[in-house]
Description:
Elements lengths: L6 E5 L4 H12 L3 E6 L2 H11 L2 E4 L5 H15 L2 E6 L17 H28 L10 E6 L3 H4 L5 H12 L1 H9 L3 E8 L12 H9 L10 H13 L7 E4 L13
Parallel strand pairs: 1-2, 1-4, 2-3, 4-5, 5-6, 6-7
Helix pairs in contact: 1-9, 3-4, 4-6
Amino acid sequence: MDIEGVGSIVTGGASGMGYATAQLLARAGARVALLDIDRAGVERAAAALDAHPFVCNVADPLSTEKAVSAASEALAPVRILVTCAGIGRLEPIVCPAGDGTLARMCETIQVNLIGTLNVVRLAVNAMINEAALEDGTRGVVVMVGSTAAHDGPAASAAYSASKGGIVSMTVPLARELGDHGIRVNTVSPGIVATPMLAHLPKPLLEEVLRLTPFPKRAGDVTEFAELVLHICRNDFLNGAVIRLDGACRSPYYSQTL
């Protein structure tokens, strides 16, 4: 699909991988809407990219519906959706009672998994109402998983489950939406240099990088964004889950790391 002039929605677009993706989409000529819970951040990012800012909490169905509807109306037809909004945290289940563990786990799953599914639901229903291109294409969805979905560390049950759900729904969504001319793919990043990286325990980060075959460093947000653009442009890439992790395959980690 040619990105030039195409309406594009990026959730989590105020920073990190979301901002980098929006930046490359804008450079490629796409018309971009940024959705993010951080009002000041999304307005600042949109001003820098000449994009449309929309405040959106993907954990809140009403907030999400309003933002996706407004973005779809502003940029019609929207043909690209990239779901970068998410939270990452380690949360052991063996812990003192009454400390809010379940609430934090539910929040992780609500934001990462339910939030992604709902954004996709809303965006693709908007895409379906638009006329298809000559080749039958109506759009492409790129969801963000994580290597934790495939081999997560200890104390990551909720986070790994939330990202595993995204990985698991890639093929079912691609099958359901194929008749409508919409492709669905997922990128599962490993360690990427984003603000979220600060929440990882330093020993865990060091061990992951030590076990990465090459390159032995964190990924760059631009590397993620470039992969997203390739997915958007490659019309035969559908139903795929792509690991972006330097070939790191994490072994068992103790939460004491």
